[in-house]
Amino acid sequence: MNNADGAKAGGAESPTNTVDSANSANSASSANSLNTVDWAAVRAEFPILDQEVQGRRLVYLDSAASSQKPRAVIDALVRYYEHDNANVHRGLHELSTRATTAYEGAREKVARYLGAASAEEVVFTRGTTEGVNLVANTWGPANLRAGDVVLLTEMEHHSNLVPWMLLAERLGLRLRHVPVTDEGLLDLAKLPELLTPEVKLFAFTHISNSLGTVNPVAQLCAAARAVGAVTLVDAAQSVGHLPVNVQELGCDFLVFSGHKMCAPTGIGALYGRRALLEAMPPWHGGGEMINSVTFEKVTFKAPPHRFEAGTPNIAGAVGLGAAVDYLEKLGRAAIFAHDQQLVGYAMERLAGVPGLRIIGPPRGGAQRAGLVSFVMEAAHPHDLTTFADRYGLALRGGHHCNQPLMRKWRLPGTTRASFYFYNTTGEVDRMVEVLHEAHRFFR
Ligand code: PMP
Q1: Does residue 210's CB lie within 6 angstroms of at least one atom of ligand 1?
Q2: DSSP E strands, 218-360
Q3: Which of 24, 82, 91, 406 is the most exposed place for a label (fewest CB within 10 A)?
Q4: Closest Cα partner for 275 from 117, 148, 140?
């Protein structure tokens, strides 16, 4: 079993990418992408990775569940609490002004990061789940009637299924699902018969958290527009990993979580096209979201504040702003290239593990993001993942909030390795060694 212990946290080989500006789809990253990224130095900026768990070097391959945080983000949180902390918007004192500037400054950063037309199109939320629920509970009842269709896909996370199921029950909507092929791709041949004029909303994921599939967002948005349907993109797995520009993609709504892109938990955002947000009623009622209140009548602020009742997660937003700065400095095109290099290498090496079957798109190109799901015959995903933990390997095992798809494929779940720019080929080697060991153990 010692052969699984080789790699040191900082010492494992680190792939290095040189990315030229032509690869970069946004200007912020293109300035930086002229440089070679020293990924080993970048990794050293993540203090949590430099530790042992279960007496072994930690190998963290669970970033699709939640990413680790660089020193720059941790420092931004500490700085905020040590120097600027106060409530936002209503204070007439210096600290409140600073907190408001920091909070609204973070909104500007997120807007720029997403390519939104203005910061007013960015609503802070707790994360992806809250973003979907916000749209389902505000845009939904205002725009949907009994018999209308909401189109989803079979690869949606529960957070982009259940809110629509709840709403369908409330309003008498019909739900349809774009099927997933055996290769883990959306079956686009079925789209014309599913995406009909009765479809009022098409909500789909950019990257599948269980399969690693990268969906053709711009193509899907254009197809939805052609039948007059509004689009909602679940970008939980994409915004921290590749360039995302809402105007180029042509989506109406886009939701994501900060914690999967180096920011703290409890903060995320909903992007909404201004005209749609302006026509939406509020969701939660309370302070911050009103213009005036009498005992009889209330008037509401314009978006985005209309949708941010109560004291928001100010420190979280500051952390998200710092994460945006950090990722833009690295360059998202460079991050995606690094992800692809690692996942390509992992799939090659996993193919040599006996009894192991990879789930999702076959290797190759832009259809596969930086994660790989697999099943090992003779080992339940939970047992395999627990076995790996004994070697310091953080994988994820289970249905990945994708129960309907797992059921369709008669899988108890999968084991998933998900990569970020701080992972190394040495860590992939270590995982493969542990999986060989697991095969010997379980067989
Ligand atoms: N959608 C996808 C594709 C996800 O991967 C996740 C998180 N696993 C979510 C939605 C939900 O995100 P959160 O729990 O941060 O709201």
Answers
A1: no
A2: 230-234, 253-257, 268-272, 290-293, 298-300, 356-359
A3: 82
A4: 117
- Residue whose Cα lies nearest atom 7 of ligand 1: it is 65
> pLDDT for 155-188, tens place per residue?
999 999 999 999 999 999 999 999 999 999 999 9
CATH 3.90.1150.10 domain locations along the chain: 21-69+331-442
Atom of ligand 1 nearest to the CA of 268: 15
Nearest protein Cα to ligand 1, atom 5: 209
> In sequence order, which ranges of 87-175 are alpha helices (DSSP H)?
94-114, 128-143, 162-171
| Residue spans in the chain of domains classed CATH 3.40.640.10 | 73-328
Residue range 21-69+331-442 forms a domain whose CATH class is alpha beta
Per-residue pLDDT of 383-400, as tens digits, reads: 999 999 999 999 999 889
- Taking the C-alpha atoms of residue 409 and residue 414, their distance in angstroms, rounded to an integer, is 11
Catalytically active residues are 401
Best residue among 63, 133, 162, 209 to mutate for probing ligand 1's pocket (most ligand atoms within 8 Å of CB) is: 209
The pLDDT tens digits of the residues spanning 82-134 come to 999 999 987 789 999 999 999 999 999 999 999 999 999 999 999 999 999 99
159 lines ligand 1 (CB under 6 A): yes
Q: Is 203 helix (H, G, I), strand (E, B) or coil?
A: strand
Query: 93 with 86: CB under 8 angstroms?
Result: yes
Query: Six-digit token pair at 20?
Result: 């030229």
Q: Name the burial class of residue 242, with classes exposed (0-12), middle (13-18) and buried (19+) by CB atoms within 10 angstroms of its CB.
A: buried
pLDDT above 60 (res 190): yes
Tell me the CATH class for 73-328.
Answer: alpha beta
The pTM (predicted TM-score) of the whole model is 0.92
Cα–ligand 1 centroid distance for 5 (angstroms): 32
Q: Evaluate: CB of 157 within 6 angstroms of ligand 1.
A: yes
Give, to the nearest 10 degrees, the angle between helix 314-330 and helix 94-114: 40
Ligand 1 within 6 A of CB of 257: yes
The radius of gyration computed from the CA coordinates of the chain, to the nearest angstrom, equals 22
